[in-house]
Amino acid sequence: MTDEHASAPGAAGSVAPDLPAAFLDAIAEGDPRAAEAAARLAWFELAGRCATPTGEALRRLDDASLEESPLLSMLAGLCELEAGRESEGALLRIARAVEAAQDDRRGVMAIDRALILSAESARHQRHGRLDEANDVARAALAHAREATTRLRSVPLSDLFTQIGVALHYTGEVDLALEAFSAGQAVAPTTPGPVDATEIAGLAAVFAYEGDIALAARYLDHARAAGAGRALTPAGAVNDWVAASMIELERFDGDGVLARLESIDTEVPFEQRLALDIVAAMARMVSGDPATALAGLEAQMRSIELHSGRSVPPSSVAFTRSMLQLSLGNVRVASAIVESDFAVGPTREVARARIELVRGHPGSAFRRLAELSTDPLPLRTAAEASAIETAALLRRRGSTRADAAIDYLGALLLRTGLRMPLAFLPHADFDRVVAGLHAAGHGALLAGLPARSVLPDLVSAEALTARERTVLSALMDSGSAADIARQLYVSPNTVKSQLRSIYRKLGAASRQEAIMIAVERQLLSPSDEADAEQDPHD
Question: Which residues form the HTH luxR-type domain (predicted)?
Fold first, then answer.
């Protein structure tokens, strides 16, 4: 800001000299169109300092001028609410702005519609109106996508991020990832001069989406921007979440938890939930999924009691399902996937993982085959690739295994992701890592304490078709002799097959073998009836 702007008689700069010069000049000249254009370019900076000084500057425009611009009307309404002034008038301004943004007959620019509706979605979300927040965020995303084809000089990356956060916390995980991906596509590789809290928030978003290298770059910029200044509670949480997600890709759960005590937990609902989710994942990586699950569920209940807002089941569905799998509770994990995951690729990948855990590589393949041919978010793509590679390596002689390993190695190298490997059963983790080493990708895990967080619920040596037949007969018969008569074989043959079944299942008795078979659905119709057949034959 020049001295001229700071000292001009009657200029809006005398109220708020540190706001963008173009915005202050337009306010001083009483030009709502110019003020609108300037607000469009600096929306998040102005909205982030809404009560003051933005609100003070906007009060220099008369009501008629504000009514000419839905964007300025929305901004003025938000600022009045934040400042605690004229609440009825503020709500009326916001309602009119939202109405204009939703009216296709009004000549409101797509970017203005997206900015207005994303702000309205955030407002609904803060008041616990999640259904309304979701509907408005979806509309904002459609308008933001339209704006990307026309504009490049507006804060599109921040806009997509805000929309993505709203969608994520209203349960639309896959749509949120699409918004994050769209934001990443238009984001500069080096952040501009914005607030450290916002940059750290973007770092967390990129880490969540799966671009760890870009997340680390934004985190470095956030810390440089905030050097020498105390972070706000929200900024500290953004920094912790971004850094923690990066550290988890290095299997450093203990390091994440060691820094947890420094975080002020008196933060908004959404950030409290993000903090709890990452902390639970860190405890799982550190080898304590039981404590992680108990802590997460207690925190969810605490959030509900203190805020009066229910935690959307879909926002914690992935974490809860992974913790249940880590504890060996396959049926519970599967129920969470079916009831709490939104329809989309994230659910299909989760279903495929459960099939792999149950020892059904062919079923896992079929789940992955149902994925859309559209590009997937990076993290989802990496998890799908890891599961596909594991399933192929279970099928000896598969002609696709080498290509799958090469693709997985290249994808992990590009993204910086490593946790998709940890989300494989232990034996699959060992096979995939060995395959990556053999293919020249051994450096991916060099120096890392890499391990699977999932137990081997099904032996690496799968039951043969004959053993499954014996196991099925065991469900109805009480002795080897009965099974032998039923299958027209000798009792000694049945006893030998039972010993093999017990060994593979880790069972010590008939009752335990039956319980394991039911838990893992080893005799379900979707079981691998032709275990030696390649799924692509």
Answer: 456-521
Q: Looking at the domain assignment, is residue 176 inside a domain?
A: no
Indicate whether 392 and 498 sit together in one domain.
no
The answer to whether residue 486 sits within a structural domain is yes
Burial code (b: 16+ CB inside 10 Å, e: under 16) for 466-493 equals ebbbbbebbeebeebeebbeebebeeee
Two tokens, residue 116: 């207005």
CA distances from 120 to 48, 129, 160, 166 (A): 14, 11, 14, 10
Indicate the residue among 445, 476, 498 that finishes a domain.
Answer: 445
Query: Phi then psi for 454, rounded to 5 degrees?
Result: -110, 140
* Local structure of 425: helix, strand or coil: strand
In order of 114, 173, 487, 488, 522, the CA distances from 482 in angstroms are 70, 52, 9, 10, 22
The 3-state DSSP class for residue 524 equals coil
Count of domains forming the chain:
3
My answer on whether 372 and 471 are in the same domain is no
| Distances from the Cα of 334 to the Cα of 4, 85, 92, 176, 285, angstroms | 65, 50, 46, 22, 21
DSSP-derived letter for residue 454 is B
Give me the phi and psi of 463, to 5 degrees please: -65, 140
CATH number at residue 432: 1.25.40
CA atoms within 13 A on the CB side of 85: 12
* pLDDT tens over the chain, length 537 residues: 333 333 333 333 344 456 788 888 888 888 888 888 888 888 887 887 675 677 778 888 878 888 888 998 898 888 888 776 657 888 888 999 999 999 988 888 999 999 999 999 988 877 768 788 889 999 999 999 888 765 555 678 778 878 887 887 777 777 887 887 777 677 655 444 456 777 788 788 889 889 998 899 889 888 887 777 777 777 888 899 999 999 999 999 999 999 988 887 677 666 788 889 999 999 999 999 999 999 999 988 887 887 677 788 888 999 999 999 999 898 899 999 999 998 889 999 999 999 899 888 888 988 998 887 778 889 999 999 999 999 999 876 667 899 999 999 999 999 999 999 999 999 999 999 999 999 999 999 999 999 999 987 755 456 788 888 888 888 877 688 888 888 889 989 999 988 888 877 767 778 877 777 776 666 654 444 433 343 333
| Residue 306 in domain | no
Domain encompassing residue 379: 311-445
Q: What is the DSSP string of 11-70?
A: -GGGT-TTS-HHHHHHHHTT-HHHHHHHHHHTHHHHHHTIIIIIHHHHTTS-HHHHHT-H
Return phi, psi of residue 311, to 5°.
Answer: -75, 120
Q: Which residue has the tokens 């890392």?
A: 448
